[in-house]
Amino acid sequence: xxxxxxxxxxxxxxxxxxxxxxxxxxxxxxxxxxxxxxxxxxxxxxxxxxxxxxxxxxxxxxxxxxxxxxxxxxxxxxxxxxxxxxxxxxxxxxxxxxxxxxxxxxxxxxxxxxxxxxxxxxxxxxxxxxxxxxxxxxxxxxxxxxxxxxxxxxxxxxxxxxxxxxxxxxxxxxxxxxxxxxxxxxxxxxxxxxxxxxxxxxxxxxxxxxxxxxxxxxxxxxxxxxxxxxxxxxxxxxxxxxxxxxxxxxxxxxxxxxxxxxxxxxxxxxxxxxxxxxxxxxxxxxxxxxxxxxxxxxxxxxxxxxxxxxxxxxxxxxxxxxxxxxxxxxxxxxxxxxxxxxxxxxxxxxxxxxxxxxxxxxxxxxxxxxxxxxxxxxxxxxxxxxxxxxxxxxxxxxxxxxxxxxxxxxxxx
Length: 413
Fold this sequence. Notes:
Blueprint: H1 12-16, H2 19-48, H3 53-85, H4 87-105, H5 111-125, H6 128-139, H7 145-156, H8 158-169, H9 172-189, H10 197-202, H11 213-216, H12 218-229, H13 232-242, H14 245-252, H15 260-285, H16 288-308, H17 314-327, H18 331-341, H19 344-360, H20 362-376, H21 378-398
Helix pairs in contact: 2-3, 2-4, 2-5, 2-6, 2-7, 2-8, 2-9, 3-4, 3-5, 3-19, 4-5, 4-6, 4-9, 6-7, 6-18, 6-19, 7-15, 7-18, 8-15, 12-19, 12-21, 13-20, 13-21, 15-16, 15-17, 16-17, 16-21, 18-19, 20-21
């Protein structure tokens, strides 16, 4: 399959809304739905399995860590697979893995099996976004890649909103069945998605570059770390500021019963619109770096308002979380930038692993936040972790190569 033409006779949006982009968008929708589902159903599902409140907290955290371990391992597994066997094969294998795992989750009555299934689900979920973004970056014309990222992200992140309402309108078992069922339906739609032309072109002549050289070759490692660094504020907002929104509200003295889940919901509503906006912004500016810088500065402004803006009502707090979600809405954009930073023979490995490594940074930032909180308080602990994340993000962006309009038909040496 050759890359999609940007012919003047074809509307740019018709080119962008091609089958691979639509299927990747729907795949990310199911990915986000399933990724967040355990967080939403953790308490009701474990309570239904007979655990006490103390056990729910302890065992729930362990099950979540199993899922995160699956994401970390799967990020490299599917990335390496994608560079060896093709991007399309990852789209099939990953969605089949996590769809079946989620369906079985709906039947489970055993905590040990539940943990194993969340690990398998995480393993499968790890391949979805990175493979989809890699495929789209390689098939769309270079001047339209930002639009493709916008579509994938805005459709995909709506999966978070769908997950909240699926649980609210049904029960935790049915929510798992819905997620797994959507994945299997999407699997059938992917039959007609062809392989990336750039990958097919590289078969048989690709230079042998082992994946571990990402970490052993200094220049390559720096590129890799920069790709992770620019995204640190995204999961800082999601994993700490939004997830512990009830604690921040209490520290601010906001009256009423502020639920963390509601803070996360408003954040993701913002992310959906922000991710669409960031792709358009990068096209208008004709720069990935400038678009990401503006989104970073908007995020920083939102964090300062949250921590020091004197928020004193639930309405203002939720508006702030909506703003934070909008401003971190460059998730697909930073992954598109990541795909553009590396050659065809390492592109899937890097993009897929970076996507999951950034998600897993919460495993580092959250313990630091929890460690500082007793002595510093919620607001100052949040500020300290945020300061480090924003500093690293801005330093990473400072020396990063501009990749807007970059030709991707090359390989790493």
